[in-house]
From TrEMBL:
Main localization of the protein described in the UniProt heading: cytoplasm
GO BP annotations, alphabetical order: actin filament-based movement; intracellular signal transduction; lamellipodium morphogenesis
Subcellular location: Cytoplasm
Domain of life, source organism: Eukaryota
GO MF annotation list: actin filament binding; ATP binding; ATP hydrolysis activity; GTPase activator activity; microfilament motor activity
Name assigned to this protein: Unconventional myosin-IXb-like
PANTHER family: UNCONVENTIONAL MYOSIN-IXB (PTHR46184:SF2), UNCONVENTIONAL MYOSIN-IXB-LIKE PROTEIN (PTHR46184)
Coiled-coil intervals, chain numbering: none
Classification via InterPro entries: Myo9 (IPR046987)
Keyword terms: Cytoplasm
Annotated Gene Ontology cellular component terms: actin filament; cytoplasm; lamellipodium; ruffle
Length: 85
């Protein structure tokens, strides 16, 4: 009887451990996606700036508010994912 209880406890711990590993893998995947999105966003911003520098003198040198907001959101998402891990 005691052996069966120990087996049940061990199996439950293994199940929880496997769930936690799966959650961590999902978080790492989400983090990688967010980092890649941020990297692409920054590359596009630099590329657009270079293209606009060649054609027209921009009125302001700062990125659009939507670009800044998107970068901020991605950075906060990455930070949140790291904290959750």
């Amino acid at each position: 009887m005691a052996r069966r209880c120990v087996e049940m406890l061990i199996n439950e711990q293994i199940r929880r451990y496997n769930e936690k590993l799966e959650e961590i893998e999902q978080l790492e995947h989400a983090e990688a996606l967010a980092v890649n999105q941020l990297k692409l966003k920054r590359q596009n911003t630099v590329h657009e700036k270079k293209c606009s520098d060649l054609t027209v003198v921009p009125e302001n040198d700062e990125p659009l508010d939507s670009d800044t907001e998107a970068e901020k959101n991605l950075m906060e998402r990455i930070k949140s994912i790291k904290q959750e891990k």
